[in-house]
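4.2 Preliminary Data

To establish feasibility before requesting continued support, the project team ran the inverse folding procedure on a target of 317 residues. The structure was first converted into the token representation described in Section 3, and no sequence information of any kind was made available to the design step. The complete token record follows.
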């Protein structure tokens, strides 16, 4: 992750993909795609006083934004021509190319900064970056780490990867959407982080729901349990993660806190308690199975971080 909070705008002429106004106020920005997320992006930019041009295949979706002062472009070409910075947030990459390919062939993207917030795979982002470069556009790929109601909240992360020049020049505008974090020059990084963080979120949600089902079976409220669970997550669990990360980087997993073998025994208590209360045990059984495979592969005396070798498919020994 780059120390982007200290980034300084690069010097760029008006035809550069990185060119932008000296201050973010009233900076022209085009938003392509007005689904729930695209509309939230445009709305956040309007809240910060930017000159926003929008285009959507279904024009009626633009009316609420037009009522707030957004300019509604009649065509994608008009939309792109209105701003040096173009944000795209459409259904998928096929839809993105349907909109942008004719413009690229006409040279309309030359000198533009294209920030793609369309969800996709890292490989698609890499291909899109090469495509943009071939058509003279600077490219950033983005991952939006919130739902539409969170757009505009400075505590919500927006992950970017690709051209650092484009990111640095347009960072003040991107900050209207949320906290902009540049992960590095590889265009696929934002998409990769997006997928990995969503996996972490869903696993955390499911673990919390399993724990909540277990605790509430004996009369505890979900609110009371969650209060304690958050202290556990923000304290001890957070410390475990920061301890294990260097172990993963080094490929060395000293079991000086709690070994995989010890935790296999401990998870048995969770399985028993859940069975006794009629709570589904698919998640704990999956975790126990994974730990057992790690132990069988020689990581029984390792810290829990050693389980990553099984997840990576590393051969035993």
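Position-by-position output of the design step:
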């Amino acid at each position: 992750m780059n120390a982007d909070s200290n980034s300084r705008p690069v010097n760029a002429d008006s035809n550069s993909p990185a060119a932008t106004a000296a201050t973010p106020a009233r900076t022209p920005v085009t938003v392509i795609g007005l689904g729930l997320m695209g509309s939230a992006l445009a709305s956040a930019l309007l809240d910060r006083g930017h000159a926003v041009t929008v285009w959507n295949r279904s024009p009626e979706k633009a009316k609420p934004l037009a009522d707030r002062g957004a300019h509604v472009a009649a065509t994608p070409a008009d939309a792109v021509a209105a701003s040096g910075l173009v944000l795209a947030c459409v259904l998928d990459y096929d839809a993105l190319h349907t909109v942008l390919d004719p413009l690229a062939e006409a040279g309309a993207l030359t000198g533009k900064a294209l920030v793609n917030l369309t969800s996709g795979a890292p490989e698609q982002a890499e291909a899109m970056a090469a495509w943009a470069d071939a058509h003279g556009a600077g490219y950033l790929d983005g991952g939006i780490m919130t739902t539409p109601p969170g757009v505009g909240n400075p505590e919500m992360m927006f992950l970017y990867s690709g051209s650092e020049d484009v990111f640095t020049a347009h960072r003040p505008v991107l900050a209207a959407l949320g906290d902009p974090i540049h992960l590095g020059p590889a265009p696929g990084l934002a998409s990769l982080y997006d997928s990995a963080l969503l996996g972490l979120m869903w696993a955390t949600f499911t673990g919390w729901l399993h724990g909540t089902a277990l605790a509430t079976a004996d009369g505890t409220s979900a609110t009371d349990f969650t209060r304690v669970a958050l202290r556990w997550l923000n304290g001890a669990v957070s410390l475990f993660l920061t301890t294990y990360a260097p172990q993963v980087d080094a490929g060395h997993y000293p079991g000086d806190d709690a070994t995989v073998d010890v935790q296999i025994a401990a998870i048995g208590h969770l399985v028993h308690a859940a069975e006794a209360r009629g709570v589904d045990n698919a998640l704990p059984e999956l975790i126990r199975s994974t730990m057992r495979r790690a132990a069988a592969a020689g990581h029984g005396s390792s810290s829990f971080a050693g389980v990553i070798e099984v997840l990576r498919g590393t051969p035993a020994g």
